[in-house]
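Let us work through a complete example step by step.
Step 1: write down the sequence.
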Amino acid sequence: MKSWLAKFRISAAMDAGKPLPESLRQKIAADPELERFARRTEALGRGLRSVPPAEPGLHDCIMRSVRDAARREQPRRAPAPSWLAASAAVAALTIACFWATFHRPTPPGRESLDGAVLVLEISEQMPNTMPKMVMAPLSDEWARVDHDVQDTTQVLLASFP
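Step 2: predict the structure and record it as tokens.
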């Protein structure tokens, strides 16, 4: 842990362009790992300062690609209407089931099992239809998230030289 703290202090001092404190120089002289780290960090800093800036044409090419990708992107729908539509469909189906069950006319003087039969028939179909209706908005949203991740990856990869 002390080594990591010393490495952080070395890196921070070199980033700031300040000379290393005496106590840190003593730690570097006593520890070969810190000495190697200090030498490598200093060499890396010199190397990065001597790298010429990227040519303007490369920057323009990357930015043109990013702008073209942004233009090709399709306008996105708000996720709320799809959730509202799915919720409304589930509510309507539930209300229809209850209405069909409890408001079925029965002949006078006879009890009928038509309501129970209808509920059983509908309940047999529910496992097949409900998952699609409930999961469709979530699947749609997940596809949009995946599309956003792909776009972000492309932009990040385009920003590296």
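Step 3: interpret the result. The radius of gyration is 34 Å.
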